[in-house]
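Question: Now follow the chain.
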Amino acid sequence: MNHGYLMLGRSGSSFELLLDPNAFALLTLIALRARRTGTFSVYDLELRQALIGDYASCGLTRKQYRCAMTRLKRYGLADFKATSKGTIATLLTDEIYDINVETASEGPSSDEQRANEGRSRGHRTATNNNEKNEKKGKKGKAPLSSSSTTHHKTFAEMDQERVGAAWEQAEREFLAGAD
């Protein structure tokens, strides 16, 4: 089992999603299982994809699981695709959870390659703080969320818009049927 980490963003969206514990639990399961490296995958999963479907593993009933999937998709946090292997979930944003995806361009820098060569010959090489900071920092990440200057709609606003659009559609259909 991989013992990596997740970063939970301290954002309004995170606090708002906490009000929906089933969706939060399912998103957490997806983030924990999502692929973050380009290594071999038996199930042909891409980066940010996870194989889910065992709803009991996050404490949900089948109905709660289906409803949580619908809400996560509606909020633009995850997408789902049913396959013969199970349900494949894809994280669409790093706004709630950052799974620390390693991009293909990441790899040892020329400095790291020289350091590794020195170690392989039995010689110790010096390191500098820049290398340490790069390893600790967020260099090479592939963020999906937009810049922080744009206004992000809350989940409640998204639901209100959806209800308003459905209401307008029902009125149009009712008025068209009355004619």
